[in-house]
What does this fold into?
Amino acid sequence: MVFKQYNINIIIRLLLLAALCIGGTIYLTEIGFDIYFFLIALTAVFLIFNLIRLYNRSNEELSFFLSSIRNEDSSLVFSEKTGNRSFDSLHKSFNRLNEQIRDARMNVIVQEKFYQTVVEKSSSGLIAFNDRGIIRLANSKARELLGINHLHNIKQLQRVNRRLIDALQNIKPGNKQSLNIIINDINVHLSLTAAEIRLKNELVKVIGINDISHEIDKQEIESWQKLIRILNHEIMNSVAPITSLSSTISSYYKEGGIKKKPGNIDDKTISNTLKGLSIIEEHGRGLINFVDSYRSLTKLPELKHDELRIKDIFESIIILAASLKDEKYPGSNITLSTSVESDDLLICADESMLTRVLFNMVKNSMEALQETKDPLIELRAEGSHTGRTTIRIIDNGHGMNNELIERIFIPFFTTRENGSGIGLSLSRQIINMHKGSITVKSTPGRGTEMIITI
It folds into this structure.
């Protein structure tokens, strides 16, 4: 409609100009040059300038409108009352189109904010970087998982963990990968997924990161609990031979279902009875101790969370360890020291459970220090800005290799002749119940560091 009116204006002006030219030519031929011919010529010149002005004005306004769009200026408004119907209609169309562009741009901004909020609030970590390692996106969850506040280049993760950089750079689009690494002294199990998108001339890799440590630990604990229940079942079934032996002994004193008289019982019967009872007692005690020890893994009491001063807990551990030295390690010269970041450093935990874990680890360290010169055990505690508390049990004992470190938390596994193999398994389960983690750092011949983070 706008262009139709514009074309009509142009055609009218061209027809008038043509009529003036024809009329002027006829007038000049028949009458000659006079004032009227001058007026006709002046009118024709006016129409030519008016036509040029109309053409230039429409081009200028169209150029101005397109420039405002290019500069994303949505505030431009054209007057719809210029006195010229064609320009009024043109301006009205510009304004309507400008409103539509403004609304579309606003929708894009709203959607962009929505997607930014979704990405930022996502429970999964998201990192996007190009082939030069420049970070295009890193949401708060990713920065939290990786323990870094500001992330601009993938190379910054080198100070977190070198294996992490290799995994992020080498994972193929569409693939999934698991990665077990230590970040800020915490053992984490990450799940990585990758995708690639092209932004203009730039290829960007997008990595999804999830911490599945608790899920894996939970599954592992559940698996061991099932195994323990099976073992309990099998152990109880092994009581059957003891029952059979009891029946056999009982038969020594019966004949035809009737109790024998004392005079009919000889020394051999008494001797066999005593041997049988001794065997029953020995196996019975062994099975009871065995079942009671391993049952503790599956029947932990509910946690009672309290705010505890770590300094007080450390003092209790020192007293317990001192009594243990006197009973089990007489004359031991093991030095126990404590270090707390602040005397008022608090931790929210179950006091008896946490004390049980720390005391068990101290006992393990004391075992590892029996042949060490100048044996030392240190208990350290420190807080962090994230509200987590880290407790370290450090000794200068014989240490462990990687193979041993991977097995020490497995139930029933022990390196001690009389060990039950449940101490560290139970400790890990207790810490997991506190939503925490246990990490081990050890070097053969240089000692061991147990790190508890809650």
Notes: The mean pLDDT is 77.
